[in-house]
Amino acid sequence: MQPFSYTSAADISSATQLAAADPAARYLAGGTTLVDLMKLEVERPTQLIDITGLPLAGVAALSDGTLRIGAMVRNADLAHNELVRTRYPVLTQALLAGASGQLRNMATTGGNLLQRTRCPYFRDTATPCNKRAPGSGCSAIGGYNRMHAVLGTSESCIATHASDMAVALVALDATVRVLGRGGGGERVILVEELHRLPEDQPERETVLEAGDLITAVDVPPLAFAARSLYLKVRDRASFAFALASAAVALDVAGGTVRDARVALGGVGTKPWRSREAEAALRGRPASRESYREAARAALANAVPRTHNAFKIELAQRTLVRALMRLEGR
Amino acid sequence: MTSVMSHAGTVDVELRVNAGSRRLALDPRTTLLDALREHLGLTGAKKGCDHGQCGACTVHVDGKRMLACLTLAVAVQGRSITTIEGLARGGGDALHPMQQAFLDHDGFQCGYCTPGQIMSAVALLREPCGPNDDDVRECMSGNLCRCGAYPNIVVAIQEVRVSEGAE
Question: What value does the CA radius of gyration of chain B take, rounded to a whole number of Å?
C-alpha cells in the first residue's frame, strides 16, 4: 500500500475543499472497495478524507413522498429500514443480495454507487487495463471474460458494474445529490446518468469531478413499487457477484400491464435500465409471452465475447422469472 | 478533527479494545487487523484472504460485525471494538454460549476460521436473520470454512439462537 495522510473531515464543506484541492485524494467511507484496492495498489491516493463522521447517516421521508437516504447510511441499515422494506422491496432485496453481512455493515449508500468493477484484470496491476492504465489495452476482451458485460461495452472495456443496489435504484428513478468543490448549490443527478458508458474513456466511470461528494440518494414516490422484486442469479447461493440480475416493478390492472420498471445487473458496464423492456411491457397482457418479448428487447443489442454469451440467454430468463414471480406465478 | 503526522510518519491512535484503551503510534496504512495482531498481541482475529472475502478477521465495532482487514485502525478511534478475546462474559474464563456451542457441536476442524465464525454468529443474534437453517446459512455466508464444518456450525448457532431467544 502506498503511503497517505489521513484526515477525518470535521464538516461537509471542509471535506469538499480538501478533496477539490488534491486530485490524488479520496474520500474514505466504508472502505470495502477502497482499502481493498489500495492493498492491490490499484488505488494509490496520497490523502484519505474520512467522511464517515459527517451528518449524512439518516433516512427521511420528505413531505412530497420522496425518501431521502443519507450517503453514509450503511447498506445493512438501509436494507432493514421499514420505509424501504414497505415502499421499495426491490431495494431491500437488492441490498441483501449483495456482499456479506459484515460488508453490508460497513458499506455505505454513496460508496456502494461508486464501487469499482471486480474485473480481475482491473485488480491485477501486472496486466494491461484501459480503466486502470488508460491506453494500455483491455486484457478481458481477448482473455477470460465469463463474468464480463454484454451491454454497454466498447472495444476499450467490457467490465461489469457489480452493484446490486444501484440496479434497484436506477429502476426506481433515484437521484443523487452532489456537493461540488467549495460548496455552492447541490446538483441533482439521476443514478441512471451518474455512471458513464466506457466508450473510449473507461477510466472515467461517473460524471462526478474531483471534490464532488454524494450527500444523499433520493428515491421518488412510486406507488406500484410496493410490489417490486430483485432476482439475482449467481454461481453460488450467497456472497457472489451476479451473473445476471433483474430489478422489476409492475403496475398491472385487469390483466394488462399499465406501467413497468426494469433494470438489469451483472450484464452491463453500468447499472442497466431497460426502457426497451418497459416499452415492450406497457399496454400488453401480463403474461409469460409478453415478458419473453420484453426480455428479448432488453438484450437485443447485447454483444457476446468468448466466454459470456450464456449471459444473453440467462439474463432474459432471469428477467422473465422475476416478472413471473412478481405476478405470483 | 485532523490527525497530524509525526516526523516518523506515524499517527497517534487510541483504540478501545475489549473494554480497555490503548494508545499506539501507527502508520496510517495499518489495518485494524494488523493493529490487533501485531501491535496489541490479540491474535484471535485471523488473517485469511486480507481482502474481505473470507471473514476470518471478523470483529465487532460498536456491536456490529465488521471486517478488520478492510478497516483502517486510524478510522475506528473512539469506537468500541470487541475481539474473540473479549467475548467471554464478564471478562472472566466463562465461555460465551456461542463458544461453548461450537465446542459442544464440533463446529470446527482446524480452527483457523473459528474466531471469525463465532464473532459473526454472536453478532447475528442481534440482526434480523430469519429462523431457519437456510436463513442462518445466508447470514453466515461471509465466513468461509475450508474444512467444511458448516453443518455443525449451523447446529451450534441454532442452539444458541433458540436458548437466547434471538429475533
Answer: 16
